[in-house]
Write a structure and sequence with these properties.
By secondary structure, the chain is of the alpha/beta class. It is 31% helix and 27% strand. The chain has seven helices and nine strands, in the order H-E-E-H-E-H-E-H-E-H-E-H-E-H-E-E. It has a seven-stranded mixed β-sheet with strand order 5-4-3-6-7-9-8. Strands 1-2 form a two-stranded antiparallel ribbon. Strand 3, helix 3 and strand 4 form a beta-alpha-beta unit. Helix 5 packs parallel to helix 6. The N terminus is likely disordered.
């Protein structure tokens, strides 16, 4: 693996991100200096939650590669009923737990776990929304989509952040429609809707 793409992507990584909407709007989350960590930019998060609607009231959400927690905390801030953050880096998982305690986010749960293995063990159709933002240099987008397909409900959504655009023909065999796509710099944001049960 060449370190060049990761280095290029990390040059502008902030040391904190701000929740942009909902109950904890403007609250800050720390961003540790960890390999591969690349928080979802504000512009992309704003676009995503415009696509989804500003309120996630009653939704069960999974942030499978949580990192800074920006996506999961954003969902909790917008009244999701339950948010699970998965992060295999123990330093980042501790930071997420600290942020949860500081903000008193009762609906949020942090687990130090490998996202793919965890999703394979998870009960099927357990979430209305799954966030997937794996490290760009790890080639995990398709394996993560396959794992997410079994844990999201029919008509539910999977958000995938990647370094390339995925065509509708690539995601349809997994049971997804490509609902929306946007690009900001090197980041491609996809909102996929689950259309068939596995």
């Amino acid at each position: 693996m060449s370190p060049r793409p990761a280095t290029a992507l990390r040059k502008d990584v902030p040391n904190e991100v701000r929740i942009i909407g909902g109950r904890w709007k403007r609250c800050k989350l720390p961003v540790a200096d960890r390999p591969g960590l690349r928080p979802t930019p504000d512009r992309i998060r704003e676009t995503l939650f415009n696509w989804l609607g500003q309120s996630l009231t009653g939704w069960r959400c999974l942030d499978a590669f949580a990192g800074s927690g920006a996506l999961g905390f954003e969902a909790a801030s917008r009244d999701a009923a339950e948010v699970t953050l998965l992060e295999r880096d123990s330093v980042l998982a501790r930071s997420l737990s600290d942020s949860k305690a500081r903000l008193k986010v009762d609906v949020l749960k942090v687990e130090c776990a490998d996202a793919l293995a965890w999703m394979h063990r998870c009960a099927p159709a357990a979430y209305e929304l799954v966030f997937l933002d794996p490290p760009f240099d790890a080639d995990l987008s398709l394996p993560a989509l396959k794992a997410a397909a079994r844990v999201v409900v029919t008509d539910g959504f999977v958000y995938l952040e990647s370094d390339r655009a995925f065509a509708a023909a690539e995601v349809q065999p997994l049971g997804f429609n490509l609902h929306r796509h946007a690009r900001a710099g090197a980041v491609h944001a996809h909102l996929l809707q689950r259309v068939t049960a596995i």
